[in-house]
């Protein structure tokens, strides 16, 4: 930074001396000066502009558009004050590995999109699974038998080889914690399941192997486990139950509190704290009805005693729309937490139903305008809160 400030002072001083001689009131600034500035110095200067001015400036130069995600700009406009700090990413096969951005702070879709290959300067087009947490993304590449953990903002990445080359991933959970991040893999071996655990905070970063739980954990390939009080929680298919994996001792346990009656599907959501780490609260979203048909959708919170306490019910009209979207195929439903919102998504529907916790109200997220009117299933949403200093 000292070298950058030194170069900036030299450029500014030279321009100031030249401007005095040339009478700046009558002549515009020489564009050659800007063209000679190093990219990092230009980013540093532009990061001090007010957000409104910067948005107007971006339309004047194609090279200014990607600066919204530059480290200088994001570090200058912190998440607490920047309307660019909280995004929902939409993945769909028709976008060809580009991710449209919904700005939750301004309530609008952006005219820019993210691309993993552009951000990482490498080919990541062969990944089969993508999950996110705490500003980081984890990609599974079955061809190279590896996982790629990346910070798109800092353009940093780490490649982690599978525990073994014959590994078939049936379930992948990736969560950030105050100590780093955890990668949880459930894989079938012969007639039993095995758990492979990777913790970035350990001095010796290697995989640990534990016994799995039952034949499988969830009927939904899009739903991750959630982190709560040092454990990873999972919902099982019928007969519905909640189980958790203790990260300290590697043992499986069933949740003490019984689930509500007449459930048609169950999903779990862990609330992030102010720093973006998971595990502050635990919610359960479930449909209530008969014969696999939901008549209502409700939200419960786990109490300190380990019981589920009902706190909200989805309004009837919104419930009818959501049920018609799913066509009672609840394996397509998945949920996640994002900046004060409990997001309920469907793999076959291009909208998000979300619950705003602070206001205790339900809303629909507007459809992405770049999506064709007729498009097939394959909608996958991700929470993205850029963090420059999130370590990979």
From TrEMBL:
This is Uncharacterized protein.
